[in-house]
Design a protein that fits this description.
Transport of potassium into the cell. Likely operates as a K(+):H(+) symporter. The protein is of the alpha/beta class. The protein has helices at about 10-20, 20-25, 30-40, 45-75, 85-90, 100-115, 115-125, 145-160, 165-190, 205-210, 220-225, 230-235, 240, 245-270, 275, 285, 295-325, 345-365, 365-375, 375-395, 400-420, 425-455, 470-475, 500-510, 560-570, 615-630, 630-635, and strands at about 135, 135-140, 460-465, 480-490, 500, 515-525, 530-540, 545-550, 595-600, 645-650. The strands form 3 sheets. It has a 6-stranded mixed β-sheet. Helix 7 (about 115-125) packs across helix 18 (about 345-365).
Length: about 675
């Protein structure tokens, strides 16, 4: 949901709390629990060093990664106020071809790891009800009913996505303000009783604990610490919805409330060590809440978990939409249920996320098991963002800063990645497999398209200028029956007006198609998110080359755009009058449109012996995805337009077979 309050304002900051901080804001639900669970049984004397060291590591992780890297640095790398790994790649992609690698890997990883966020946050919240007594209700300590409730909540959440969440979204901000204020005050209440926990703000305790023999996990403790900052990448991605100034204005408050919660949990653990080291250890987050406030804590935690899940789901839609615009993923049906551009709905992504998330809930069963698998893939995304940010800094002329940055954060995040590798056997393999699956689709779609175009480039492009005289003559030839007033071919017109031979073949050879105006339209996805501009080159009175420039967040509605272009050219006198003789629309000036879609296919891909095996595999995968993805008609918004689909062969490797001989009679 894109708000109109991009400038710093009270309303803008409240909305920012609801949109941006859902993921990182619910981390106190499970981070301390994950640290204690991973550390195993502790002696009372070991609790103080562990709490001081762990919370110090959390504080400085949030300071270095979330504050320094993302808030202070990454948010400067905005693409017309839009953030995220794909928006960042769009800024630097012309600098080097290899930058596509971190974009693909990072994008796949963040989509895969995000499937755990709804599962772990909602499960952690509902587990707080176990053993609680509310009036006549006595909640069992069994996990089975928790799984059913979590499943119901998540199903409802995914079901309502198609209707849009604009009205619900406006309530997210005040609710998250209540959430952050509550966890901060509860944390402060416990911290006052053990003020020595404030020592954890010193980095000395972080380093001492990390290197101490009392830390039995060693470096692998960072795998649990990292959970406190997993929402930083989502924070950067959501920047475009609220504006960076509102994030600058709200982060100090959010950071303070998070740290008060962690410090309060640490203080409670020091006072109630026996409850932590017992056979059934308690979650410090709920345990530190006074009994008469505990039910409120569970309710507001559940609401915060739902908000975090909602932010993750809509963030996934945005990432997929951007990837499609950058030609990194196949076309999918995209709907805009709200009145704002960034509120979109991708049905295929929604139900895929739903299926995977519910499978994770039932596979891992408890939030503790989910926490053990959480965060592995996101460390990969952060490393990929670091590489892209280095390219951005170099592009701006800051070479020294770029090298210092990539060295410092590259080492830090590599350390977290190494620590998180221990999660692989505890369930991290799930997100790794999902990452590889998404990455495979991206590679086949993007690289397969690049390799196909490379083989087509030298053999199947012709200059449109060479055929303009024939097109102009055909347009005036009364002996050929009219095919359309405006005949439109959507493709790519390159340098020197190069087009695919199949395009010209379709007009002149298969069946001469007479039209009043021939339109050759190139749709260019631009780096600016919402650009909507065009240029026109008139090659003849009846031949038009249109370059349409659409931002990667702009919907593709070619029929609407072309009618506007024709009206503009009619007003300028560039086109001849097209007023139809018969029409039910008063004042109509534009004639009919007919769109021709060329469906290029291989006659036999396996028989293309001149193609390397890898290229055949990549191109074949790309064509397979093309068959099951959204059709060009629906993608370009032409579902209700007059569209003709023609199947033509791909002219790759169509060389003469020199073994062919004429038989002697």
């Amino acid at each position: 949901m894109k708000t109109t309050t991009r400038t710093l304002s009270g309303l803008g900051m409240i909305i920012t709390l609801g949109i941006v901080y859902g993921d990182i804001g619910t981390s106190p639900l499970y981070v301390m629990n994950a640290i204690i669970g991973a550390a195993g049984p502790q002696k009372p004397a070991e609790l103080a060093p562990m709490m001081l060291g762990s919370i110090s590591l959390i504080f400085w992780t949030l300071m270095l990664i979330t504050t320094v890297k993302y808030i202070l640095l990454a948010m400067r790398a905005d693409n017309r106020d839009e953030g995220g790994i794909f928006a960042l790649y769009a800024l630097v992609r012309n600098q080097a071809k290899w930058l596509i690698v971190p974009a693909l890997v990072g994008g796949a990883a963040i989509l895969a790891d995000g499937t755990l966020t709804p599962a772990v946050t909602v499960t952690s919240a509902i587990e707080g009800l176990k053993g609680q007594i509310v009036g006549p209700l006595h909640f069992s300590t069994e996990q089975s009913w928790v799984l059913l409730v979590v499943t119901g909540i998540l199903l409802i959440l995914f079901l309502v996505q198609r209707f849009g969440t604009q009205l619900i979204g406006w309530s997210f901000g005040p609710l998250m303000l209540i959430w952050f204020t509550f966890i901060g005050l509860v944390g402060l209440h416990n911290l006052i009783q053990v003020p020595l926990m404030l020592r954890a703000l010193s980095p000395v305790y972080a380093v001492q604990f990390l290197l101490s023999p009392e830390n039995r996990q060693g470096i692998f403790i960072l795998g649990s610490i990292f959970l406190a900052t997993t929402g930083a990448e989502a924070l950067y991605s959501d920047m475009g919805q609220v504006g960076k100034r509102n994030i600058y204005g709200t982060w100090p408050f959010v950071y303070a409330m998070l740290m008060l919660s962690y410090l309060g949990q640490g203080a409670w653990v020091l006072q109630h060590g026996a409850l932590i080291t017992g056979a059934r250890p308690l979650n410090p987050f709920y345990a530190m809440v006074p009994v008469h406030w505990r039910m409120f804590a569970i309710v507001i935690a559940t609401i915060a978990a739902i908000i975090a899940s909602q932010a993750l789901i809509t963030g996934s839609y945005t990432l997929v939409h951007e990837a499609i615009g950058l030609k990194l993923l196949p076309r999918l049906r995209i709907k805009f249920p709200g009145n704002v551009k960034s509120q979109l709905y991708v049905g295929a992504v929604n139900w895929l996320l739903c299926g995977i998330t519910l499978s994770i809930v039932w596979y891992f069963q408890t939030s503790a098991h989910m926490e053990a698998a959480y965060g592995l893939a996101i460390t990969i995304t952060m490393l990929m963002t670091t590489l892209l940010l280095r390219a951005f800094l170099q592009q701006r002329g800051h070479r020294l800063l770029a090298n210092v940055y990539v060295t410092a954060f590259g080492l830090l995040e590599s350390l977290f990645l190494l620590a998180s590798l221990a999660k692989f056997v505890h369930g991290g393999y799930v997100t790794v497999l999902l990452t590889l699956a998404i990455l495979t689709v991206m590679v086949f779609w993007h690289v397969g398209n690049v390799r196909r175009d490379a083989h087509l480039a030298n053999t199947e492009n012709v200059s449109l200028l060479d055929f303009v005289p024939q097109l102009a003559a055909l347009s005036q030839d009364d002996q050929v029956p009219p095919f359309a007033t405006n005949l439109v071919y959507i493709g790519h017109v390159g340098e020197d007006y190069a087009v695919k031979r199949a395009t010209v073949y379709s007009i002149l050879d298969q069946q001469p198609k007479r039209a009043k105006v021939y339109w050759f339209v190139t749709v260019n996805e631009t780096d600016t998110p919402y650009e909507c501009t065009y240029t026109v080159q008139q090659l003849a009175r009846s031949v038009m080359d249109v370059q349409l420039y659409l931002g990667f967040k702009k919907p593709q509605r070619l029929n609407v755009y072309l009618r506007q272009i024709v009206n503009d050219l009619l007003n300028e006198g560039v086109l001849d009058d097209q007023t139809p003789r018969y029409s039910s629309i008063p004042g109509r000036r534009v004639g009919n449109f007919k769109f021709v879609m060329l469906n290029q296919q291989f006659q036999d891909l396996g028989a293309q012996e001149d193609l390397p095996l890898l290229d055949r595999l990549l191109i074949g995968g790309r064509l397979l995805l093309q068959r099951i993805s959204l059709s060009p008609q629906r993608w370009y918004g032409l579902a209700f337009s007059d569209v003709v689909e023609e199947r033509v062969p791909l002219f790759i490797g169509q060389h003469p077979d020199r073994t062919l001989r004429r038989r002697k009679e």
